[in-house]
Write a structure and sequence with these properties.
Coiled coil: 41-68
CATH architecture: Up-down Bundle
Organism: Rhizobium rhizoryzae
CATH class: Mainly Alpha
InterPro entries: DUF892_YciF-like (IPR010287), Ferritin-like (IPR012347), Ferritin-like_SF (IPR009078), YciF (IPR047114)
Protein name: Ferritin-like metal-binding protein YciE
CATH topology: Ferritin
Keywords: Coiled coil
Distance between the termini: 49 Å
Strand content: under 5%
Oligomer: single chain
Structural class: mainly alpha
Order of helices and strands: HHHHH
C-alpha cells in the first residue's frame, strides 16, 4: 500500500470513528426524550448498540494499521452532534425534525462507508473490508427503516397534535 493511499485511508477511518461518536451524541439525547413513539425508541436503541459495535470495528481496523482514533475529531463531532440534538428539543415538531436529521445523517454515513470501501480496496487492505461492509449494511438498514416509517411517524404526530396531546416526543 502506498503511503499516500494509506494516509488517506487512515484519515477516512479516523473521520468515520468521529462520525460514529457524533451519531452516539445525536441518538442518546433523542432516546432520553422519546415517550410517545415506542417504535422509534426501540429502533434508535437498536441502532445505538449497532453504532457502538461500529466504533469497535473501526478501532480494530485502525489497530491493524498501528493507528489510533483522533480524540480531537471525536470530541469536536460529538459536541456538534449534541448541539444539533439540543436544537431540535425546542421545536414543536421535534420528532419530525429528528426523523429528518437522522435520515440525512444515515445517508452521510452510507456515503462515508462506500468511500472507505473504495480506499480499502485501493490500498489492498482486505482485512478491513468485512467490518466496513458490516457497518455499511447497518447504516443502510437504519436508513431504510427511517424511510419506511416516516409516514407512520408523521401521521402519528399529526393525530397527536390535533388531539391536543404531546406531539413533540
Amino acid at each position: 500500500m502506498t503511503e499516500d493511499r494509506r494516509s488517506l485511508f487512515v484519515a477516512g477511518l479516523k473521520n468515520a470513528h468521529a462520525m460514529e461518536n457524533q451519531a452516539l451524541s445525536i441518538i442518546k439525547p433523542q432516546l432520553s426524550r422519546i415517550e410517545n413513539y415506542p417504535q422509534v425508541a426501540a429502533r434508535l436503541e437498536q441502532h445505538l448498540r449497532e453504532t457502538e459495535a461500529q466504533i469497535k470495528r473501526i478501532e480494530d481496523i485502525l489497530a491493524g494499521l498501528n493507528e489510533d482514533n483522533s480524540t480531537l475529531k471525536d470530541w469536536m463531532l460529538s459536541a456538534t452532534g449534541s448541539m444539533a440534538a439540543l436544537g431540535h428539543t425546542m421545536a414543536d415538531d421535534e420528532i419530525l425534525k429528528n426523523s429528518f436529521a437522522n435520515f440525512a445523517f444515515e445517508h452521510f454515513e452510507i456515503a462515508a462507508y462506500n468511500a472507505l470501501l473504495v480506499m480499502a480496496e485501493m490500498c489492498g487492505h482486505q482485512s478491513s473490508i468485512a467490518g466496513l461492509k458490516e457497518n455499511l449494511s447497518e447504516e443502510e438498514a437504519m436508513a431504510r427503516w427511517l424511510s419506511n416509517n416516516l409516514r407512520e411517524v408523521t401521521s402519528e404526530f399529526v393525530v397527536r397534535r390535533e388531539a391536543g396531546e404531546t406531539a413533540k416526543v
